[in-house]
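Project standup — Tuesday

K.O.: blocked on the structure for the chain from last sprint. Re-posting the sequence here as requested.
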Amino acid sequence: MQVVFRVDSSHVIGTGHVMRCITLAKKIARDPQVRCLFICREHLGNIASVIEDAGFTVGFLKSKPSIKQHPLYSNWLGSTQKDDALQTFALLNALKIKRIALLVVDNYALDITWEAQFKKSVKQLLVIDDLADRKHQCDALLDQNMAPSYRTRYQHLLPKGCQTFLGSHYSLLRDDFYICRNKVQVRTQLRRLFIFFGGVDKQNMTLKCLQKISVQLPLLQEIQVVVGRANRHKKSVQDFCNQHKNCIYHEQISNMAELMLNSDLAIGAGGTTNAERMFLGLPSLVFSIADNQYIISQYLGNLGWIDFMGSMQNSTLDKLPSTLWRYLLNPVLIERKSAQLLADNMNNMDDFIKQIWPFYT
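H.V.: unblocked you, prediction finished:
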């Protein structure tokens, strides 16, 4: 049975789309009859090697340099939707793939225009989205974010009969997060800090935050600092960590859940990592580093699930030391936040997968 993922990564797009698709692919590929193919455009800063390291085949679409210049989602594609669909069909034909049991589309630049081309050639089409800003032609849609009106915001964007899986309880979490969830305990004080701003972190927020709280670092037992392979600033981050004995540098790790489990507070970006931190009861100071993260992170802040610091500006960075002092001096705040997260954040990902992939066990 053939499963195909159409997903991209780059210095502009980031790596979160690919990482969550890898998680889904690993779950589905437990069935030995399943073959997973990732179709990705060769954008600068892509993490196709991470997909291959996970054991999956990658088919490439040729890139165009325009993606490096324009931030709008429609320009992330590197082609028109029509050309992308034609190139995807050509690649599938070259690989002699004619019958697709499940096609997963995770790309902000694709919508009903692209999806309609494939409806007759695939048994099931799943869209993974975060934006609710365009129409889709699909059998199922997953949006694992919490946002205002998250239960209804896709009502006029989907075909009749489309299954929807909405909210953080459907977050795509790797198996190690479930293992760590069984081990997690309510945090009672701030000793261990975890810092991660996604696989790319093009604004170098990791280093900026470390520099802002440099005076407070000696008060902490350890600071786990994680960067992705595609991070162009990783050398400067590593150099900073080498100058502070309790700062531990990690690059493109596979034990993210374990590091979160053994931390008391996180500093990082909004996006897919929000769900991971919340599921493990890890209080977080969250910055919005992309337009689509702001409303979602603000909503999570209103729920009390994160401390939303705002968008990445000097004024919000200036608030970081005082916020950290608040948690250092008031351990009960860590305890209350951690307990609330563990009580409020469960996960129904297995139920979601069983409904879109009946062979899943």
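K.O.: great, moving the ticket to review. The domain at 2-166 is CATH 3.40.50.11190 (Rossmann fold). The chain is about 35% helix and 20% strand.
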